[in-house]
User: What shape does this take?
Amino acid sequence: EPVKVGIITTLSGGGAGLGIDVRDGFMLAVKQSGNTDIEVVIEDDQRKPDIAVQLADKMIQSEKVDVMTGIIWSNLAMAVIPSAVAQDKIYLSPNAGPSALAGRGCHPNYFNVAWQNDNLHEAAGAYTNSAGFQNTFILAPNYPAGQDALTGFKRQYQGELAGEIFTKLGQTDYAAEIAQIRASGADSVFFFLPGGMGISFLKQYADSGVDLPVVGPAFSFDQGILQAVGQAAIGVKNTSQWNKDIDNPTNAAFVETFQAEYGRLPSLYASQGFDTANLLLSAMAKADISDRNAFRAALKEADFHSTRGDFEFGNNNHPVQNIYVREVIKEGDVYTNKIIGVALENHVDAYAADCQM
Amino acid sequence: MTLLNVTNIAAFYGATQALFDVSLRIDAGQVLALMGRNGMGKSTTVKTICKMIPVSRGQITFHGQDLQKVPSYKAARLGLGLVPEGRRCFPNLTVEENLIAAARPGHWDFAQVSALFPRLEERRTQGAASLSGGEQQMLSIGRALMTNPKLLILDEATEGLAPLVRQEIWDAIATLKHKTGLSILVVDKSLKELSQIADTAMILERGATAWSGAMGDLTDDITNQYLGV
Amino acid sequence: MSFILFAEQVLNGLQFGVMLFLMSAGLTLVFGVMGLINLAHGSLFMIGAFAAAAVAGLTGSFVLALMAALAAAAAAGALVEVLVIRRLYDRDHLDQVLATFALILIFSEGTRWIFGSFPLFLNIPDYLSGPVTLPGGIQYPLYRLTLIGIGLAVAVGLFLLISRTRLGIQIRAGESDREMIAALGVDISKLYTIVFALGAALAGLAGALVGAIQSVQVGMGEPVLILAFVVIVIGGIGSIKGALIGSILVGLTDTLGGLFMPALFALFMDNSSAATAGSALASMLIYILMAVVLIVKPSGLFGARA
Amino acid sequence: MTRERKINAGLALALLAFPLWAYFANEPFMITLATKVAILALAGVGLNIALGQGGLVSLGHAAFFGIGGYAMGILASHAQTFDPIAEWPFLIEGTKSMPIIWIVAVLTSGLAALLIGALSLRTSGVYFIMITLAFGQMFYYFAISWPTYGGEDGLSIYVRNGFPGLNTLDPIQFFAITFVILMLAMGFAAMLAKSPFGLALNAARQSPQRVETVGMTPYRLRLVAFVISGMITGLAGALFADLNRFVSPTMFSWQTSGEIMVFIIIGGIGRLYGPLVGAALFIALEHILGGLSDYWHIYLGVLLLLIVLFARGGVIGSLAGRGHAHD
Amino acid sequence: MTDAVLATKGISKSFGALQASLDISIDLRPGEIHALIGPNGAGKSTLIQQIAGGMKPDAGQIFLNGQDITALGTAARAKRGLARTFQISALAMEDTVLQNAVLGALGAQGRPFQVFGTALGKADLRATAEQALDRVGLMDHAKTRTSELSHGQRRQLEVAVALTLNPKAFVMDEPMAGLGTRGSKRLTGFLDSLREQAPILLVEHDMDAVFTLADRISVLVYGQIIATGTVDDIRANADVRRAYLGDDT
Ligand SMILES: Nc1ncnc2c1ncn2[C@@H]1O[C@H](COP(=O)(O)OP(=O)(O)OP(=O)(O)O)[C@@H](O)[C@H]1O
Ligand SMILES: Nc1ncnc2c1ncn2[C@@H]1O[C@H](COP(=O)(O)OP(=O)(O)OP(=O)(O)O)[C@@H](O)[C@H]1O
Ligand SMILES: [Mg+2]
Ligand SMILES: [Mg+2]
Assistant: This one.
């Protein structure tokens, strides 16, 4: 029986790049599979929660989809996922992994193919320890994901905090924060500033003359935005569950075909979209969507070739995976990342224990 | 040579008609006095000539050009210099700036205007808002002259001024007429001064021409009928 | 808090303020002279940044990039004025708000259509990068100092333009009596186009200058636009002086507020919640400032009319 | 009577007929869209009392819309977790009852409108537009950074709140609720316009001096109108939150204020059915254009521009001719 | 002074350097029409504004029926019985003539916050309004939109709205302005009949009307009253002829 998939993702306005990458990665896998039993509807949420909710209603009520995916942002995820899974739709998250859905709020219909939100931050904390930093300065925007980021970092980090700052969401000028970093006597800086915020911060940081080492999650250093950050990012260490140099055939083929298809290097988000589709395809091969229990079990097995190598779900349907440390380098004219180590091995998120499923 | 020719114009404010078939003519070097009691349409006539309000019927030509077809700034550039009712100096500008704003090349420049109204030279940097009424009037005339007009239009240039100041203004107008041969359309209420300066005259009564002719032909009967109380 | 940190933050506030001034100057000019609310002013900021990034990408020259920003924004401004804005002068503010809101949509999506969804790259030129040491041992990025310099120079230039040149005099005359200045032979619609293009060029310049230290991306203009409105309302609409003082006030409030508010809250809260609460209040601070100014002076600090 | 009346009756019928068609055609999403139109139109009806009748161009009505939304979100989330909102000075429990939520939404947004209005109405013109914007932004930033109720993530309510005797999760029944409320609000707005208060308010917009010289204070008239306006928009906010079963600070953003205003302008300022037409057109465009291209905002922009430039008086104004509305 | 309905005592007002009112004391006695004349910009409208409450005097006091009303706002003065008309018509232009008159009646009634029932359906309001319209002869135009009225009819409507307040004193700023000769004559007759109801402080440039109507005339020049007296006094006053009337009058 054919499976109908609804992708709600951000395709216009700020942050559209992420949604486009997820969509392109997903569609690439579907195309490569040659499977004609899968029908995909794609809608643009404009990064607005109310639009996302409506689109979800539309997909469930009108399009009658079986599986949903695509949401990038945690706040949109929180608006859509709980009610979708309650209506017995399967949801495969290609990016957002809010803690509320990982712990007590976990659900058998909800699978996260990317990470729990805290993971990359925790990894950054772990790396900061191993790199020998004792007094780090941490900052993130003042919104839930930002607060989670600092909490996640502190969960692993063992040294002192030279300072802890919440910036304004959408802030573009970090001169004031950089001045505080300069005055704080820190030995390193951890920051989580997704999208344009990270670009601005790094450019300004590089120009400020403060030359403390910088650590962050992959979001600010990924393929889509590195070119805009430019020289300022070189040498920065960041944590990610994926990189284009992870050595396995699936990944190599993915990087190559993605580049051939779309004319650009794949990003983290593209890999997540690609994995999501492959997970779905693997379950379709094993079970019929009309038999929800069998289908869920097939998903849980995660019997597919991931770009990350082996892929495994924990008890809360979130990945148990390695998180790597990457370094920003320049290859020819292109800024990109290279893996330099493993920050956390087979990492299970902190909320898994709370999940009664 | 006919400089300004207004033929059978009508004009409205919203639904109320303010001008009915008004015609007038000014030749080069002439002074025309436009008279009439309050609210009879003198200022309205002036405003239609300067393209501040549209005419609904009739024709206005200046220097042979049909003014109907040009916007107000082009009409001004053809050589219409307006001293509007209520002076309308730019209050946020100084005296000098008021003059500069209007300046176009020609005989009249800041020095010439200062020579005509020495008072303006003294007040050069003062804001127009704080000038006395008479000074504002001088400034408004000076400003119109700075555009080097062919026809100077004075609407109530002596209104509300102390007699002494009035006299100064009249003297200046006389100078303009006799020394520079400027054509002038003058709207005013003081018959005595008008009769000394104007060549032709015209009286408006409720938006229509009541009388027109040479200034010399204006008899006491006529003025009593149309201008008296 | 050390003196150096404080001094650096004051400089930061100043720099932020000066950039805001470039945005607000055009906005206040357009509003003061033409009575037009232009929500699309932020799009001109964005156009400047994109033009600069594109030209810098092609030629590698920062100076050329700045020129391109000025030219592109001015051209876009003039074009929009002639095609759309001109029809709005006699309309009420609501129509202006809606029409210029529509322009934002067109500009933003149009830019995304041309340049794609990913942020663009525009970097500080080498000769302006890195910090310099100021008297008192303050380390401060050279580029930001340059921004302060450029901003203040533009402020002085604009002030001279408006107060000393014939064009400026005519602009101010048009502000108080549009009909009269036309009756004196000044082509008021051309004047308006010039003013609009000038305002646009300043916004474009600000976009390019800021683009080099931030990310050049679609939608970058709107947050600045809101701030610029706050600035001109605080300063008093139509006043260049008000825009400058308002900008610096907003710049300092925002920067120092972000610094002091969490510190203030830390006096009676634990650090983490003080950081949260303090920065929450800090982000509301300029709006509070604006509300207070308007409640005390309903037409802004230097506003003539309401 | 007039042509506008006939158009209005047609519009009300259309709003009723569309979801009924969708119900029988088994297109529940179309009902949801119609519900959204009704709710946003309600917000517009609220703003239109301030804007159309009072001449108060508020760019901060998102504040009331958001307060209504959060009234629902906060009450329902406490009911969801059985965690009282306050225990002192007396016990306040959450609730999942729509009528109670509505009352709270209307009262809190009315209170906020009283405060904001009392301060903002001291200014006028663009300053008023901007100071209302400023208040809206204060709420926006507050909601984003206040972690208790979800901050930027917002609050999710998993099940729609209840209304005695109805199954609110059934799209057509929830639509019926919003439709009735919208019609009541429009009836109220129509009555207001003709009432002595409406007469005075409309006169205060056209000539405040006149109103003063006959012994009334424009400030007070406007303040009352602003409060009524805020209350209705607040109620719309509560319904909107229930429609989505979700609230977030986006409801407070200036774009939300702008959109509500856009509905009114598209439909026709001061026209009773203006907000309905505007909201319907906007949502239809969003729905249809959104399917055409990733860059559909361009088309939306061009369309809006054409409406402002060439359809003066909004859609209703163009259809019905110049009636009782100001430019 | 004690029997004056309306009086000012030492009113002064300046705009920056401009002295618009200087120590002005005038009064309005029962049953009289007191005309205020003077050149443009002399400060007549400014004085009217201060009396009506639209502008605060820098110094001096204003009394209505012996009570000091200087501190009151426009609306409060209107409630106490001070009715004014504007130099430039201030009416609700989109509303009908009747609605404008009802607005006056509503103000007089003092309960503007009624949201139930229609304004035109309130019998008491409507009666007051129609009566006033009838008196100025506008009843035929009750349903006309005000913006469609001629200039003269608008002036009549202004007076009608003032009448709905059943005022103790009228303050009128150039009611004849823009009326034709016939219109002025009609309004002159009407104002003449109005003085029995309440006295009128009348600012007017139309000397025919002023000389016909006025019991007393005050002449304002550069913010100062230079003369007050009967029509004949004023016509004969040399200062007044010089400052305002001129020699031809
Ligand atoms: N802006 C306006 N709107 C409506 N009517 C107007 C307007 N300006 C003038 N009027 C009317 O048009 C008529 C002619 O006015 P105009 O100003 O031309 O008179 P005038 O002869 O210049 O009088 P004055 O000697 O008082 O200046 C008057 O009845 C006046 O009331
Ligand atoms: N708000 C103000 N600010 C500054 N100056 C003002 C203000 N209001 C009036 N004036 C000035 O005060 C003077 C008196 O004005 P006013 O309107 O009282 O004159 P008026 O006697 O009524 O004249 P008219 O007969 O032309 O109506 C004028 O010079 C005017 O420009
Ligand atoms: Mg005149
Ligand atoms: Mg006056």
